[in-house]
Amino acid sequence: MSNLVTLLLNENIKALKPYESARRLFSGAGNKEQIWLNANESPFANPYDIDAERFNRYPDCQPPAVIEAYADYAGIATDQLLVSRGADEGIELLIRAFCTPGKDSVLICPPTYGMYAISAETCDVGVERAPLKADFALDVDVIKTFKGKVNLVFICSPNNPTGTSVNKKQLLEVIEHFADSAIVVIDEAYIEFDDDNTWANALNNYANIAILRTLSKAFALAGLRCGFTLAQAPIIQALMKVIAPYPIPEPVAQIAAQALSHDGLVNLEQQVSLINQEKALLQHALKQYPEIELVGDDKANFILFRCGNKSGLMTHLVANGILIRDQSKQLNLDNCLRITVGNPQQNKQLLSKISHFFTNQSSTQEA
Ligand SMILES: *Cc1c(COP(=O)(O)O)cnc(C)c1O
Question: How far is CA 118 from the centre of its chain?
Fold first, then answer.
Protein backbone atom coordinates (compact mmCIF):
# COMPACT_ATOMS: atom_id res chain seq x y z
CA MET A 1 0.00 0.00 0.00
CA SER A 2 1.27 3.51 -0.77
CA ASN A 3 2.05 5.82 2.13
CA LEU A 4 -0.83 8.07 1.17
CA VAL A 5 -3.32 5.21 1.16
CA THR A 6 -2.00 3.91 4.48
CA LEU A 7 -2.33 7.41 5.91
CA LEU A 8 -5.87 8.00 4.69
CA LEU A 9 -7.57 4.58 4.62
CA ASN A 10 -10.30 4.16 7.23
CA GLU A 11 -9.21 1.98 10.17
CA ASN A 12 -12.15 -0.42 9.75
CA ILE A 13 -11.35 -0.91 6.04
CA LYS A 14 -7.66 -1.78 6.59
CA ALA A 15 -8.40 -5.28 7.86
CA LEU A 16 -10.93 -6.12 5.12
CA LYS A 17 -10.37 -8.24 2.00
CA PRO A 18 -12.56 -7.92 -1.11
CA TYR A 19 -15.57 -10.28 -0.83
CA GLU A 20 -14.85 -13.70 -2.34
CA SER A 21 -18.04 -13.87 -4.37
CA ALA A 22 -18.75 -17.07 -6.28
CA ARG A 23 -18.03 -15.14 -9.46
CA ARG A 24 -14.72 -13.70 -8.28
CA LEU A 25 -13.43 -17.10 -7.13
CA PHE A 26 -13.66 -18.37 -10.71
CA SER A 27 -13.10 -15.10 -12.59
CA GLY A 28 -11.29 -15.82 -15.84
CA ALA A 29 -13.01 -19.20 -16.09
CA GLY A 30 -15.76 -17.52 -18.10
CA ASN A 31 -15.65 -19.63 -21.22
CA LYS A 32 -18.77 -21.33 -22.50
CA GLU A 33 -17.52 -24.85 -21.70
CA GLN A 34 -17.93 -24.30 -17.97
CA ILE A 35 -21.04 -25.36 -16.11
CA TRP A 36 -21.76 -22.75 -13.46
CA LEU A 37 -23.37 -24.36 -10.41
CA ASN A 38 -21.64 -22.20 -7.81
CA ALA A 39 -23.69 -19.01 -7.31
CA ASN A 40 -27.32 -20.16 -7.06
CA GLU A 41 -28.07 -18.51 -10.38
CA SER A 42 -30.83 -19.78 -12.64
CA PRO A 43 -29.72 -21.92 -15.59
CA PHE A 44 -32.32 -20.24 -17.80
CA ALA A 45 -31.51 -17.08 -19.80
CA ASN A 46 -34.79 -15.47 -20.86
CA PRO A 47 -35.08 -12.96 -23.75
CA TYR A 48 -36.08 -9.29 -23.21
CA ASP A 49 -36.71 -6.21 -25.36
CA ILE A 50 -35.00 -2.87 -24.82
CA ASP A 51 -36.32 0.51 -25.96
CA ALA A 52 -33.49 3.07 -26.22
CA GLU A 53 -35.84 6.03 -26.61
CA ARG A 54 -35.31 7.34 -23.05
CA PHE A 55 -31.61 6.60 -22.64
CA ASN A 56 -30.71 10.31 -22.91
CA ARG A 57 -32.67 11.03 -19.68
CA TYR A 58 -31.86 10.19 -16.08
CA PRO A 59 -34.10 7.36 -14.90
CA ASP A 60 -36.71 7.58 -12.14
CA CYS A 61 -35.21 6.83 -8.72
CA GLN A 62 -38.03 4.36 -8.12
CA PRO A 63 -39.41 3.46 -11.57
CA PRO A 64 -43.22 3.36 -11.15
CA ALA A 65 -43.75 0.44 -13.57
CA VAL A 66 -41.37 -1.73 -11.52
CA ILE A 67 -42.74 -0.62 -8.16
CA GLU A 68 -46.35 -1.22 -9.21
CA ALA A 69 -45.63 -4.62 -10.75
CA TYR A 70 -43.61 -5.88 -7.77
CA ALA A 71 -46.08 -4.54 -5.18
CA ASP A 72 -48.77 -6.45 -7.07
CA TYR A 73 -46.67 -9.60 -7.19
CA ALA A 74 -45.87 -9.41 -3.45
CA GLY A 75 -49.41 -8.37 -2.45
CA ILE A 76 -48.34 -5.16 -0.69
CA ALA A 77 -48.91 -1.41 -1.15
CA THR A 78 -46.57 0.61 -3.37
CA ASP A 79 -45.40 2.75 -0.42
CA GLN A 80 -44.19 -0.44 1.32
CA LEU A 81 -41.55 -1.13 -1.29
CA LEU A 82 -38.09 0.04 -2.32
CA VAL A 83 -36.25 -1.14 -5.45
CA SER A 84 -32.44 -1.21 -5.32
CA ARG A 85 -29.33 -2.61 -7.01
CA GLY A 86 -29.91 -6.15 -5.87
CA ALA A 87 -30.95 -7.27 -2.40
CA ASP A 88 -27.31 -6.62 -1.48
CA GLU A 89 -27.91 -2.89 -1.75
CA GLY A 90 -31.01 -3.31 0.42
CA ILE A 91 -28.80 -4.84 3.12
CA GLU A 92 -26.38 -1.92 2.93
CA LEU A 93 -29.12 0.74 2.94
CA LEU A 94 -30.68 -0.79 6.07
CA ILE A 95 -27.29 -0.72 7.82
CA ARG A 96 -26.50 2.82 6.69
CA ALA A 97 -29.92 4.12 7.69
CA PHE A 98 -30.28 2.35 11.04
CA CYS A 99 -26.78 1.79 12.46
CA THR A 100 -24.36 4.52 13.54
CA PRO A 101 -20.74 3.69 12.55
CA GLY A 102 -18.40 2.92 15.43
CA LYS A 103 -21.35 2.62 17.82
CA ASP A 104 -24.16 0.26 16.76
CA SER A 105 -24.25 -3.45 15.87
CA VAL A 106 -26.24 -5.99 13.87
CA LEU A 107 -27.01 -9.63 14.76
CA ILE A 108 -26.47 -12.52 12.34
CA CYS A 109 -27.21 -16.26 12.71
CA PRO A 110 -24.43 -18.27 11.06
CA PRO A 111 -24.00 -20.32 8.97
CA THR A 112 -25.69 -17.81 6.68
CA TYR A 113 -25.31 -15.40 3.78
CA GLY A 114 -22.00 -13.51 3.93
CA MET A 115 -23.04 -10.02 2.93
CA TYR A 116 -24.72 -9.02 6.23
CA ALA A 117 -21.39 -9.12 8.08
CA ILE A 118 -19.41 -7.69 5.16
CA SER A 119 -21.75 -4.74 4.71
CA ALA A 120 -21.66 -4.06 8.45
CA GLU A 121 -17.86 -4.20 8.53
CA THR A 122 -17.44 -1.82 5.60
CA CYS A 123 -19.76 0.62 7.43
CA ASP A 124 -17.79 0.25 10.70
CA VAL A 125 -20.85 -1.35 12.32
CA GLY A 126 -20.39 -4.21 14.83
CA VAL A 127 -21.42 -7.81 14.11
CA GLU A 128 -22.86 -10.00 16.88
CA ARG A 129 -23.52 -13.71 16.32
CA ALA A 130 -26.23 -16.12 17.50
CA PRO A 131 -25.31 -19.37 15.69
CA LEU A 132 -28.07 -21.63 14.40
CA LYS A 133 -28.59 -24.86 16.36
CA ALA A 134 -27.26 -28.19 15.11
CA ASP A 135 -30.46 -28.72 13.05
CA PHE A 136 -30.12 -25.13 11.70
CA ALA A 137 -33.12 -23.87 13.68
CA LEU A 138 -32.90 -20.39 15.24
CA ASP A 139 -31.48 -20.33 18.76
CA VAL A 140 -34.27 -18.07 20.00
CA ASP A 141 -33.03 -17.93 23.61
CA VAL A 142 -29.59 -16.74 22.55
CA ILE A 143 -31.04 -14.29 20.00
CA LYS A 144 -33.19 -12.74 22.73
CA THR A 145 -30.13 -11.94 24.86
CA PHE A 146 -29.12 -9.32 22.26
CA LYS A 147 -32.08 -7.06 22.94
CA GLY A 148 -30.83 -3.48 23.30
CA LYS A 149 -27.43 -4.46 21.86
CA VAL A 150 -28.30 -4.61 18.15
CA ASN A 151 -30.32 -2.44 15.77
CA LEU A 152 -30.86 -5.03 13.03
CA VAL A 153 -31.40 -8.80 13.28
CA PHE A 154 -30.68 -10.57 9.98
CA ILE A 155 -32.59 -13.81 9.43
CA CYS A 156 -32.34 -15.63 6.12
CA SER A 157 -35.30 -17.87 5.24
CA PRO A 158 -34.88 -20.04 3.22
CA ASN A 159 -31.32 -19.82 4.48
CA ASN A 160 -28.30 -19.77 2.22
CA PRO A 161 -26.35 -22.12 2.34
CA THR A 162 -28.40 -24.60 4.44
CA GLY A 163 -31.64 -24.51 2.39
CA THR A 164 -33.65 -24.54 5.63
CA SER A 165 -36.61 -22.28 6.25
CA VAL A 166 -37.13 -20.66 9.62
CA ASN A 167 -40.01 -21.84 11.78
CA LYS A 168 -42.73 -19.17 11.70
CA LYS A 169 -43.57 -19.36 15.40
CA GLN A 170 -39.94 -18.90 16.38
CA LEU A 171 -39.50 -16.00 13.99
CA LEU A 172 -42.64 -14.38 15.36
CA GLU A 173 -41.23 -14.72 18.88
CA VAL A 174 -38.09 -12.90 17.72
CA ILE A 175 -40.06 -10.15 15.94
CA GLU A 176 -42.20 -9.52 19.02
CA HIS A 177 -39.22 -9.61 21.39
CA PHE A 178 -37.45 -6.86 19.40
CA ALA A 179 -40.63 -4.88 18.64
CA ASP A 180 -39.42 -1.66 20.28
CA SER A 181 -35.67 -2.06 19.84
CA ALA A 182 -34.61 -3.57 16.49
CA ILE A 183 -35.72 -4.25 12.92
CA VAL A 184 -35.85 -7.94 12.02
CA VAL A 185 -34.63 -8.25 8.43
CA ILE A 186 -36.05 -11.38 6.79
CA ASP A 187 -34.04 -12.28 3.70
CA GLU A 188 -36.42 -13.99 1.27
CA ALA A 189 -34.02 -14.21 -1.70
CA TYR A 190 -35.21 -17.80 -2.34
CA ILE A 191 -38.87 -17.38 -1.38
CA GLU A 192 -40.18 -18.52 -4.79
CA PHE A 193 -38.97 -22.02 -3.83
CA ASP A 194 -40.82 -21.88 -0.50
CA ASP A 195 -43.71 -19.46 -1.10
CA ASP A 196 -45.91 -20.66 1.78
CA ASN A 197 -43.39 -19.20 4.21
CA THR A 198 -43.29 -15.57 3.11
CA TRP A 199 -43.80 -12.78 5.64
CA ALA A 200 -44.99 -10.31 2.98
CA ASN A 201 -48.65 -10.86 3.89
CA ALA A 202 -47.89 -10.01 7.55
CA LEU A 203 -46.22 -6.69 6.76
CA ASN A 204 -49.15 -4.61 8.01
CA ASN A 205 -49.02 -6.30 11.43
CA TYR A 206 -45.37 -5.62 12.29
CA ALA A 207 -43.67 -2.23 12.21
CA ASN A 208 -40.25 -3.77 12.87
CA ILE A 209 -39.82 -6.16 9.95
CA ALA A 210 -38.11 -5.58 6.61
CA ILE A 211 -38.17 -8.26 3.91
CA LEU A 212 -35.46 -8.59 1.26
CA ARG A 213 -36.32 -9.94 -2.19
CA THR A 214 -34.41 -10.24 -5.46
CA LEU A 215 -34.76 -10.92 -9.19
CA SER A 216 -31.37 -12.72 -9.10
CA LYS A 217 -32.46 -16.24 -8.20
CA ALA A 218 -35.84 -17.68 -9.31
CA PHE A 219 -36.40 -14.78 -11.74
CA ALA A 220 -33.15 -15.68 -13.52
CA LEU A 221 -31.84 -12.10 -13.59
CA ALA A 222 -28.65 -12.08 -11.50
CA GLY A 223 -26.98 -10.00 -14.23
CA LEU A 224 -29.64 -7.30 -13.88
CA ARG A 225 -28.81 -6.33 -10.28
CA CYS A 226 -32.36 -5.67 -9.11
CA GLY A 227 -33.73 -6.33 -5.63
CA PHE A 228 -36.43 -5.11 -3.27
CA THR A 229 -36.97 -4.18 0.36
CA LEU A 230 -40.52 -4.60 1.70
CA ALA A 231 -41.52 -2.86 4.94
CA GLN A 232 -44.06 -0.48 6.40
CA ALA A 233 -43.88 3.02 4.90
CA PRO A 234 -41.80 4.68 7.69
CA ILE A 235 -38.91 2.23 7.14
CA ILE A 236 -39.11 2.69 3.35
CA GLN A 237 -39.09 6.49 3.78
CA ALA A 238 -35.96 6.23 5.94
CA LEU A 239 -34.21 4.13 3.27
CA MET A 240 -35.15 6.73 0.63
CA LYS A 241 -32.92 9.19 2.54
CA VAL A 242 -29.79 7.10 1.91
CA ILE A 243 -30.38 5.59 -1.54
CA ALA A 244 -28.58 7.13 -4.54
CA PRO A 245 -30.61 9.51 -6.73
CA TYR A 246 -30.57 7.21 -9.81
CA PRO A 247 -29.94 3.67 -8.57
CA ILE A 248 -31.94 1.81 -11.25
CA PRO A 249 -30.65 2.20 -14.81
CA GLU A 250 -33.38 2.61 -17.46
CA PRO A 251 -32.64 -0.75 -19.19
CA VAL A 252 -32.84 -2.49 -15.80
CA ALA A 253 -36.25 -0.94 -15.14
CA GLN A 254 -37.51 -2.03 -18.56
CA ILE A 255 -36.35 -5.62 -18.13
CA ALA A 256 -37.61 -5.87 -14.54
CA ALA A 257 -41.07 -4.70 -15.63
CA GLN A 258 -41.15 -7.40 -18.34
CA ALA A 259 -40.04 -10.09 -15.87
CA LEU A 260 -42.92 -9.04 -13.60
CA SER A 261 -45.54 -8.98 -16.38
CA HIS A 262 -48.20 -11.68 -16.62
CA ASP A 263 -46.13 -13.66 -19.16
CA GLY A 264 -43.00 -13.18 -17.09
CA LEU A 265 -44.69 -14.61 -14.00
CA VAL A 266 -46.08 -17.61 -15.92
CA ASN A 267 -42.55 -18.31 -17.14
CA LEU A 268 -41.20 -17.89 -13.59
CA GLU A 269 -43.62 -20.48 -12.26
CA GLN A 270 -42.70 -23.01 -14.95
CA GLN A 271 -38.98 -22.56 -14.36
CA VAL A 272 -39.34 -22.85 -10.57
CA SER A 273 -41.24 -26.12 -10.93
CA LEU A 274 -38.65 -27.47 -13.37
CA ILE A 275 -35.86 -26.59 -10.93
CA ASN A 276 -37.78 -28.27 -8.11
CA GLN A 277 -38.14 -31.45 -10.20
CA GLU A 278 -34.45 -31.44 -11.06
CA LYS A 279 -33.57 -30.78 -7.42
CA ALA A 280 -35.49 -33.91 -6.38
CA LEU A 281 -33.66 -35.99 -9.02
CA LEU A 282 -30.27 -34.67 -7.87
CA GLN A 283 -31.06 -35.34 -4.21
CA HIS A 284 -32.17 -38.86 -4.99
CA ALA A 285 -29.03 -39.57 -7.01
CA LEU A 286 -26.65 -38.08 -4.43
CA LYS A 287 -28.25 -40.06 -1.61
CA GLN A 288 -27.13 -43.30 -3.28
CA TYR A 289 -23.50 -42.57 -2.40
CA PRO A 290 -22.46 -43.73 1.06
CA GLU A 291 -19.72 -41.05 0.92
CA ILE A 292 -22.31 -38.25 0.65
CA GLU A 293 -24.55 -36.95 3.40
CA LEU A 294 -27.20 -34.39 2.41
CA VAL A 295 -27.14 -31.48 4.87
CA GLY A 296 -29.91 -29.00 5.71
CA ASP A 297 -33.05 -28.84 3.59
CA ASP A 298 -34.19 -28.26 0.01
CA LYS A 299 -36.25 -25.05 0.28
CA ALA A 300 -34.12 -23.19 -2.30
CA ASN A 301 -32.44 -23.88 -5.67
CA PHE A 302 -29.33 -25.60 -4.31
CA ILE A 303 -28.22 -28.71 -2.46
CA LEU A 304 -25.76 -28.77 0.42
CA PHE A 305 -23.93 -31.97 1.29
CA ARG A 306 -21.05 -33.26 3.34
CA CYS A 307 -18.38 -35.44 1.77
CA GLY A 308 -15.29 -36.80 3.57
CA ASN A 309 -13.14 -36.14 0.53
CA LYS A 310 -14.75 -32.82 -0.36
CA SER A 311 -11.46 -31.33 -1.61
CA GLY A 312 -10.91 -34.27 -3.96
CA LEU A 313 -14.48 -34.09 -5.27
CA MET A 314 -14.36 -30.31 -5.68
CA THR A 315 -11.02 -30.49 -7.55
CA HIS A 316 -12.34 -33.27 -9.79
CA LEU A 317 -15.50 -31.32 -10.69
CA VAL A 318 -13.68 -28.04 -11.31
CA ALA A 319 -11.05 -29.85 -13.44
CA ASN A 320 -13.97 -31.19 -15.48
CA GLY A 321 -15.47 -27.75 -15.98
CA ILE A 322 -18.17 -27.94 -13.31
CA LEU A 323 -17.94 -25.03 -10.89
CA ILE A 324 -19.49 -25.53 -7.45
CA ARG A 325 -19.05 -23.78 -4.10
CA ASP A 326 -17.03 -24.88 -1.10
CA GLN A 327 -18.94 -23.99 2.10
CA SER A 328 -16.63 -25.85 4.48
CA LYS A 329 -15.27 -22.70 6.12
CA GLN A 330 -18.72 -21.75 7.43
CA LEU A 331 -19.64 -22.46 11.02
CA ASN A 332 -20.64 -26.15 11.51
CA LEU A 333 -20.33 -26.89 7.79
CA ASP A 334 -17.01 -28.73 7.78
CA ASN A 335 -16.53 -30.77 4.57
CA CYS A 336 -19.66 -29.25 3.02
CA LEU A 337 -20.10 -28.39 -0.66
CA ARG A 338 -23.01 -26.52 -2.23
CA ILE A 339 -24.32 -27.27 -5.70
CA THR A 340 -26.82 -25.03 -7.50
CA VAL A 341 -29.50 -26.95 -9.41
CA GLY A 342 -28.76 -26.54 -13.13
CA ASN A 343 -30.75 -27.43 -16.23
CA PRO A 344 -31.43 -31.12 -16.97
CA GLN A 345 -28.38 -31.51 -19.21
CA GLN A 346 -26.04 -29.80 -16.72
CA ASN A 347 -27.32 -31.92 -13.86
CA LYS A 348 -26.81 -35.08 -15.89
CA GLN A 349 -23.21 -34.09 -16.57
CA LEU A 350 -22.69 -33.25 -12.92
CA LEU A 351 -23.95 -36.67 -11.82
CA SER A 352 -21.82 -38.43 -14.39
CA LYS A 353 -18.66 -36.64 -13.17
CA ILE A 354 -19.54 -37.42 -9.55
CA SER A 355 -20.02 -41.05 -10.50
CA HIS A 356 -16.58 -41.11 -12.21
CA PHE A 357 -15.02 -39.62 -9.12
CA PHE A 358 -16.33 -42.23 -6.70
CA THR A 359 -15.73 -45.15 -9.09
CA ASN A 360 -12.09 -44.12 -9.60
CA GLN A 361 -11.68 -43.46 -5.91
CA SER A 362 -12.84 -46.92 -4.89
CA SER A 363 -10.73 -48.61 -7.58
CA THR A 364 -7.60 -46.74 -6.37
CA GLN A 365 -8.41 -47.75 -2.81
CA GLU A 366 -8.77 -51.39 -3.79
CA ALA A 367 -5.50 -51.35 -5.74
C1 LIG B 1 -28.10 -14.13 -3.69
C2 LIG B 1 -28.53 -13.63 -2.38
C3 LIG B 1 -28.74 -12.26 -2.15
C4 LIG B 1 -28.30 -11.22 -3.13
O5 LIG B 1 -29.22 -10.89 -4.03
P6 LIG B 1 -28.88 -9.78 -5.12
O7 LIG B 1 -30.23 -9.26 -5.42
O8 LIG B 1 -28.25 -10.50 -6.27
O9 LIG B 1 -27.99 -8.75 -4.51
C10 LIG B 1 -29.24 -11.86 -0.93
N11 LIG B 1 -29.49 -12.76 0.04
C12 LIG B 1 -29.27 -14.06 -0.14
C13 LIG B 1 -29.57 -15.01 0.96
C14 LIG B 1 -28.77 -14.55 -1.34
O15 LIG B 1 -28.49 -15.84 -1.48
Answer: 13
